[in-house]
């Protein structure tokens, strides 16, 4: 089993155990076919810029845990992960020369932890907290101008930052003895203060940093203990790391194995099941 998938599974089990002890609400969100779009920019000096792109379809899921700390202060933790899969990679598509192609696998894990305070007389809450991301990028079957590169590459990126945003929710009256309609949504905007790339780089002018956001809208029906909903989620993770690296160190020309500006966009409709304690 992939080590990242195994560690993620253990982490999820840990969250479930903690949530079972003291959670007010536990929700699982499942995106059967999430669209993931990766774009890496920079490093090479060419007239049209240098970029790598890959756009796989992959299942993704989120686990959300909420609890009320006080009457006016709530706590939320949510963890997201995708199922990694190889997809076609396209390099420098704006140029007729120096075409890089291959297969790329994206592995995404992110953790959001925040506090939520309601605005007086409003269903809206102000959100502030910390978030972290862990990405793995694997490349294989890479060619530059039709010339195959030997071997493969494995890059690990990590980021940590803070975020602010707004959360809103509402619930109608129960329909007789049946469920009540409800809605829930949030928008979070974040900035990374620390980033790291475990694949050695060749230097460069780009420094640590980055940006992220998360958007979620959902609605459904709620019983006293259970709730079922459908919705739409979109997340952006943009990580800046110093420099970049050629696929074959010291060789020229050589395909690009890592880039200083890395952006992953994840989005799609989801199904959710929640349990209220």
What does this molecule look like?
The protein has 277 residues and is mainly β. The chain contains one helix and 15 strands. The relative contact order is 0.19. The model has no long low-confidence stretch (mean pLDDT 84).
Strand content: over 45%
Q: Judging from the principal axes of the Cα atoms, what is the shape? A: elongated
Rounded mean pLDDT is: 84
Based on CA atoms alone, the radius of gyration comes out at 21 Å
Helix content: under 10%
Distance between the termini: 34 Å
**What is the H/E order?**
HEEEEEEEEEEEEEEE
Total strand count, please?
15
Summed up, the helix count is 1
Give start-end ranges of low-pLDDT stretches.
none
Strand count, sense and barrel status of the largest sheet are: 13 strands, antiparallel
Please identify the structural class as seen in this structure.
mainly beta
Strand-helix topology:
Blueprint: H1 3-22, E1 25-41, E2 51-54, E3 57-70, E4 73-82, E5 86-91, E6 100-118, E7 124-144, E8 147-148, E9 153-171, E10 180-197, E11 209-222, E12 226-240, E13 245-246, E14 256-258, E15 261-276
Antiparallel strand pairs: 1-2, 1-3, 1-15, 2-5, 3-4, 4-6, 5-6, 6-7, 7-8, 7-9, 9-10, 10-11, 11-12, 12-15, 13-14
Which descriptors would you attach to this protein?
single chain, 277 residues, mainly beta, 13-stranded antiparallel beta sheet, two-stranded antiparallel ribbon
Brief account:
Helices cover about 5% and strands about 65% of the residues. It contains 1 helix and 15 strands, in the order αβββββββββββββββ.
């Amino acid at each position: 089993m992939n080590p990242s998938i195994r560690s993620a599974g253990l982490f999820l089990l840990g969250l479930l155990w903690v949530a079972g002890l003291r959670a007010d609400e536990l929700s699982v969100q499942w995106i059967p076919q999430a669209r993931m779009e990766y774009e890496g920019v920079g490093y090479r000096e060419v007239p049209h810029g240098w970029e790598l792109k890959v756009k796989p379809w992959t299942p993704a899921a989120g686990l959300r845990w909420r609890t009320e700390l006080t009457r006016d202060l709530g706590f939320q933790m949510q963890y997201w992960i995708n199922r990694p899969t190889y997809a076609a990679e396209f390099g420098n598509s704006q140029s007729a020369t120096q075409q890089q192609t291959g297969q790329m696998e994206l592995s995404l894990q992110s953790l959001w932890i925040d506090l939520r305070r309601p605005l007086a007389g409003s269903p809206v809450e102000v959100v502030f907290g910390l978030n972290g991301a862990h990405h793995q990028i694997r490349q294989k079957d890479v060619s530059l101008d039709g010339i195959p590169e030997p071997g493969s590459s494995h890059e690990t990126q990590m980021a940590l930052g803070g975020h602010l945003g707004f959360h809103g929710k509402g619930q109608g009256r129960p329909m007789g003895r049946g469920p009540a309609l409800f809605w829930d949504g949030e928008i979070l905007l974040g900035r990374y203060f620390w980033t790291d790339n475990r694949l050695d780089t060749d230097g460069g002018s780009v420094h640590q940093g980055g940006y992220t956001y998360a958007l979620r809208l959902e609605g459904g029906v709620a019983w006293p203990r259970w709730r079922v909903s459908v919705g739409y989620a979109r997340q952006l993770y943009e990580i800046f790391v110093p420099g970049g690296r050629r696929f074959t160190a010291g060789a020229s020309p050589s395909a690009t194995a890592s880039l200083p500006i890395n952006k992953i966009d994840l989005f799609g409709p989801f199904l959710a099941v929640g349990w209220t304690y």
